[in-house]
């Protein structure tokens, strides 16, 4: 795949390339019934890739995910292997206090709701949207309990797995924010794309040096997705080369 390369070595993705990558990604998703689809915005040529996923929080964190050792093992075999680059390149996050363990420490209805969420499935809606400003894909998402109550930013932070959270608190990330969806005009959480070109540069450069094709969206999503509970099946790794678009 041909990408725009700046003098500093960063790579940028054009909108047409983004759509090609999404089309190939969805093609593989359909083969394995992974739930991704493309949605066009009514009255516009623009669209986004989306998936709805239900996740049951693990007891090992207040609202956390699977066991840390399991995730570490899976990350060793992940599609991209660039998570460390992300953690090192992103700017500081303000640490958010987590609720105290145990119902006896809860003092108001809000805290009760947050603790009870720990045992309930959470509905995640992920949107992959192209940003013309950053020339990169952006991950928008929202989450709610089965009764429809949306999760707060604090709860979203608590949903970050311990394996990531500990590292994020050491050199962390201020990029999980809530803002308006650029295509739908609705409030969503978003992983800010300011560092995307930087942490994707070595991934793309390595692929080009080895004369391998790479699906930018797949490689990028394998890096940022796990931070908010979105893990790609390992089979996407081999599909990246098989389905990557050719240069224009």
TrEMBL record:
BP terms from Gene Ontology: autophagosome assembly; autophagy of mitochondrion; protein modification by small protein conjugation; protein transport
GO cellular component, one term: cytosol
One Gene Ontology term of the molecular function aspect: Atg12 conjugating enzyme activity
Subcellular location, record wording: Cytoplasm
Keywords: Autophagy, Cytoplasm, Protein transport, Transferase, Transport, Ubl conjugation pathway
Gene3D superfamilies: 3.30.1460.50
Main location (coarse class): cytoplasm
Function: E2-like enzyme involved in autophagy. Acts as an E2-like enzyme that catalyzes the conjugation of ATG12 to ATG5. ATG12 conjugation to ATG5 is required for autophagy. Likely serves as an ATG5-recognition molecule. Not involved in ATG12 conjugation to ATG3. Plays a role in adenovirus-mediated cell lysis.
Family: Belongs to the ATG10 family.
Listed name of the protein: Ubiquitin-like-conjugating enzyme ATG10
Lineage, opening ranks: Eukaryota, Metazoa, Chordata, Craniata, Vertebrata
């Amino acid at each position: 795949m041909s990408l725009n390369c700046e003098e500093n070595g960063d790579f940028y993705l054009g909108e047409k390339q983004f759509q090609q990558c999404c089309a190939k990604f969805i093609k593989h998703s359909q083969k394995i019934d992974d739930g991704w689809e493309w949605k066009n915005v009514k009255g516009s040529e623009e669209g986004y890739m989306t998936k709805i996923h239900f996740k049951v929080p693990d007891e090992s964190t207040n609202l956390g995910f699977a066991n840390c050792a399991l995730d570490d093992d899976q990350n060793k075999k992940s599609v991209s292997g660039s998570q460390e680059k992300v953690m090192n390149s992103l700017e500081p996050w303000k640490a958010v206090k987590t609720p105290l363990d145990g119902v006896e420490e809860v003092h108001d209805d809000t805290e009760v709701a947050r603790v009870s969420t720990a045992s309930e499935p959470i509905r995640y809606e992920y949107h992959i949207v192209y940003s013309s400003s950053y020339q990169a894909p952006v991950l928008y998402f929202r989450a709610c309990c089965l009764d429809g109550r949306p999760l707060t930013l604090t709860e979203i932070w608590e949903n970050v797995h311990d394996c990531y959270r500990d590292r994020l608190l050491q050199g962390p990330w201020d990029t999980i924010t809530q803002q308006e969806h650029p295509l739908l005009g609705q409030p969503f959480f978003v992983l800010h794309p300011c560092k995307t070109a930087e942490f994707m540069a070595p991934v793309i450069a390595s692929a080009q040096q080895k004369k391998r094709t790479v699906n930018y969206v797949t490689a990028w999503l394998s890096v940022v997705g796990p931070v908010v509970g979105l893990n790609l099946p390992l089979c996407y790794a081999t599909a990246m080369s098989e389905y990557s678009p050719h240069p224009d």
